[in-house]
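Researcher: Here's a chain I'd like modeled. Treat it as a single chain, no partners, no ligands.
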Amino acid sequence: MRPLPRLARSSVTAELGAPAYVVLGMVRLGARSGYEIKQLVENSIRFFWTISQAQIYPSLQLLEQAGFVTGRADPQGRRPRRVFDITAAGEAALRDWLAGTPVAGHRSSATTQASCTASSAASRSPVSRHRAATAAHQCWRMS
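Model: Modeled as a single isolated chain. Structure tokens:
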């Protein structure tokens, strides 16, 4: 992943759209690499929200530039890989976004809110991820 040029935090946060906040929510749930984010989306909210690899990696770069996630190299064998952790600023930004008005044209806000309010420590297990996805789906159906 090529680093973005250093931008002012306000200009980066202005560029963040719903996909970036979905990525941030997935990092909050314990998905640490772009591949894990895609897998978590595919196994949880794919029926009402999809995201492509072409959205995930640029979103991770923007989130890192904004200070919402921190990334580090974590190669797996010969395969290069970066993993990400949410920061306190990222937690606050996600909480603020979830408290705001849903994004026009997307029913993802309630879904993401249900998923992201799960405890991050508990959400790392597959069972907890499944429970969070089920809760998100039930929340979406009621909206």
